[in-house]
Amino acid sequence: MDWIRISRKNPHYFEHANGDTFIPVGVNLCFQRFLQTDEACLAAYCRQIATFARNGGNFIRVWMGVPFLQLEPERSGVFSERKLANLHALVDLAKANNVRIKFTLEHFRRLGGGSDGELFPGAANFENPVYRKDNGGFADSVPEFMTSEAGRKHFIRKLELLSRHFSEEPAVMAWELWNEINTVSAPRSVWQEWSQLMLKELHRCFPHQLCLQSLGSFDSPRHLERYRWLCTLDGCDYSQAHRYLDPGAELDICRGPMDLLCRDVIEELRRSNPARPAILAETGAVESRHSRPSRLYDADTHGTLLHDGLFAPFFSGSAGCGQFWHWDQLYLERHNLWFHFHRFVKATAEFDPVREEATPFFRTAGCFRLYGLQGKFHTLLWLRDAKNSWESELAQGRAPELQKGVNLDLRSLPGGAFRQARCFLPWTGDTIPMELHGTGMELPEFSRSMVLLLMR
User: For the domain with range 5-355, which CATH number is right: 2.60.40.10, 3.20.20.80, 3.40.50.620, 3.40.50.10610?
Assistant: First the structure.
């Protein structure tokens, strides 16, 4: 079977069972915000997955703890055959479109009432009263859910149920224990111990699939130590982070250019554990402290934020593109931005980072930021116009400048002499063969960014 695993040749990347490199071109399709029936949700997934796959997408993240897939919709331990059928239907949709799934098992933060930071139409519900004792369950708090014998046995029972149905299904690439485990109403010692225990159970139940845990948005200095814990956690098969453009973030980097905040988090994941792949598993733009989707989305009809969120992580050493949130009528579907995934695939198709033994590098050159992957045979460059940003284009309304007559000094790049070059313009989809003149080359006209494949 064609399982996806960590590359045997380069642990920063993934591979198919036959050894071919697998680059996850991913997006969050976690739930259907505005739909009420299972039939409507399945129809929406059918449309979204097919459109995504036609544009080169091959990896999606889906939350199970939502009405469409919640296995225990009414009572603890009473598993719904209908919801299980929905899971099978979703996996069948993924298989038909050659798309892999990461299922997130839980996302609730409390069992009883409380307030949420997200209080906009379509926001996720972070409460799950099903497990409460007054509803016939076994716990009145998240700590009791995680530490009691009844709570742990119950969670393992659910894992074993899912294992009987999906442990031999390669379309399910990964299982994630919890969305942002550090946000639950429980002490850190509780959710850390629970994570360690349940990752072992995940591997027991799903021996062929990748197993994961996740933390909340990496937007504060205090999260650094938590992310280093996650990156070295036994049984967590790859390093992943959530990070957003957020005007209320404590870290300055999270309030600046989108490409730089993506680059910074991937570099931190790779520093924290150089022996695992690194993925930006959630990114996007929000209002202060995740109170609602960003108002910048209204103006971002061309997808500048999405473009940076896709390209910057991969060119900084990630195993794949950044995986955007706000996938539906809040942003991606609203502006019909799926084509950006196709442009990412086209820009990177001729560069195999495993075969190339790729090493990421970063340079500034005049008013440009150069993101590069240096390989044995090729160097792949993403040039980003530093004068163009979400602030200039979306907040201030200044159109990106057309760059003309830009000369690239090849001596500033690592890897020796180059003999040929090819340019790809991700904002038009055009590919242009280039001529090299000694130690430099004149780039074609472009705006915002461009990609160069340099051949030795």
Answer: 3.20.20.80
